Amino acid sequence: DPDSGDNGLLLYSLVNDQPNEFDIDENTGQIFTVSVAGKAGTFHLEVQAADQGTRQLTARTTVNVTVDSSSSNNIVVVELNQKINVVERNIAGVKRVLEDKLAWNVYIVEVYSGGFERQARSSTDVTYMKIIAFDEANQEVPAEDVKRKLWEQKNNIEVELEKIFLTSVTAVIEEAPADSASPELIAAIVLGVLLACILVAFLVYVLFAVKRERYKQLYFIIGFDNPGATDKNGSLKSLEKLEHTDN
User: Fold this and answer.
1) Would you say which domain of life the source belongs to (predicted)?
2) pTM strictly above 0.70
């Protein structure tokens, strides 16, 4: 927008907001993935830019985002010793450094922290980035090749990142972590174990009750037909003793 002042100040927003999948930086218009794990296909996002003048003017466009699930095999995780909100503010610069040193097109798939999101954004000094690289033919670069080149350029990358963050930066290349079990899955497993324990306890109780009932019936039959089959304490005598008595 060539205007000056409030008439030239643009704020961006998603018209068909999908808070569980995408988000947008209202100041820069940069779109981020929030959660597209396990999803594939094309998402149609309608983005609006609005100036802040008295008579507000707006414009809209559609952004098509294609998620390819096959990319997960070549994802590489890079760990930075910086807060997640600081990394997010400088994500464009981080991307530029990675592309320059790797000589590939780099896409930052996800930026996340190891703790709870709201707390970690300002308190945790470690941020993880999932990245994937594409060569000149727009083909995915194998993860092992990306990691090898990251290690080769590690020092150069850290030097350039220090210029962006204005502080010492350490970059660690990690394996892409396996998806952790969801709380729902954990709860289901715990519930299943508890139900199994209850079932086993119930079967043991039933088995014990059946055996005790059979013992009572046997005691009643032998004791009724053979009054001498019990000793003075009321206990069953051995069959050997009963046979000896009959003889």
Assistant:
1) Eukaryota
2) no
